[in-house]
């Protein structure tokens, strides 16, 4: 080619869909502004398999395992010994792509009312989706804990915030720690939008579509990211879990 190209390796949740949507918007804006061929012509890999093959062509292991490419690492763990921060483990993107989905844990809260009415059906759904229950307890949420589970959008409206907190502390909540490959994203995908009405319009099989009543009484809370899942596990299961020990949980000190 007569002109240079810029090759980027990007990583995030739902990377393929998010990048495809972003490039589509970019193309639409470009067509409105100019018809010039000199503008960027983006091309993306469409599957994990193609991504891996192309990454091997353009990058080496050392391109990813560097201090300046932290965001491209699968994990970097640090141990703090006498005030000194030392790298103790790093796994490259290549290794991550070859390994595939890791077995992880996530946290599911079945909100007051929902679990007492439909627990057997919900547990059956978890079995069908190949989740293992590695932690379970029923608790009455304290107001500060309930507040910590709410999104920033909910906290912007005092009336909505009060309604959520009042409901979450109104009865017993069943807390489950679930384990399976790609557990966090799988659970988020199954729950669907937080608004049960929207969930029913998009897909009546979303769990919030089936068991939710309103934005406040929507049936479930699920950890939205791996970092939040680790926080939730430490919050609700400080005594530990009943799953087999694995490197991920050990290094997160769960």
TrEMBL record:
InterPro entries: NDK-like_dom, NDK-like_dom_sf, TXND_domain-containing. Pfam families: NDK (PF00334). Residues 103-243 form the Nucleoside diphosphate kinase-like domain. Belongs to the NDK family. This is Nucleoside diphosphate kinase-like domain-containing protein. It comes from Podiceps cristatus.
């Amino acid at each position: 080619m007569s002109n240079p190209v810029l090759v980027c390796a990007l990583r995030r949740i739902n990377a393929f869909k998010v990048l495809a949507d972003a490039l589509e918007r970019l193309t639409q804006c470009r067509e409105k502004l100019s018809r010039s061929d000199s503008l960027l012509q983006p091309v993306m890999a469409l599957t994990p398999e193609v991504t891996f093959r192309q990454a091997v062509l353009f990058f080496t292991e050392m391109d990813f395992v560097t201090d300046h490419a932290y965001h491209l690492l699968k994990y970097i763990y640090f141990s703090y010994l006498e005030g000194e921060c030392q790298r103790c483990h790093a796994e490259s993107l290549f290794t991550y792509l070859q390994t595939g989905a890791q077995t992880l844990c996530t946290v599911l809260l079945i909100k007051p009312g929902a679990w007492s009415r439909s627990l057997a059906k919900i547990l059956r759904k978890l079995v069908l989706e190949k989740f293992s229950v590695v932690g379970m307890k029923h608790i009455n949420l304290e107001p500060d804990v309930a507040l910590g589970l709410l999104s920033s959008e909910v906290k912007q409206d005092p009336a909505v915030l009060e309604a959520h907190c009042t409901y979450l502390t109104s009865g017993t909540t069943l807390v489950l720690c679930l384990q399976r490959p790609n557990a966090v994203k799988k659970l988020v995908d199954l729950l669907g939008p937080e608004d049960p009405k929207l969930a029913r319009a998009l897909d009546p099989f979303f769990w919030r579509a089936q068991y939710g009543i309103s934005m406040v009484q929507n049936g479930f809370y699920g950890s939205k990211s791996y970092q939040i899942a680790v926080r939730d596990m430490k919050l609700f299961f400080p005594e530990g879990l009943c799953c087999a020990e694995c490197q991920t949980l050990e290094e997160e000190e769960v």
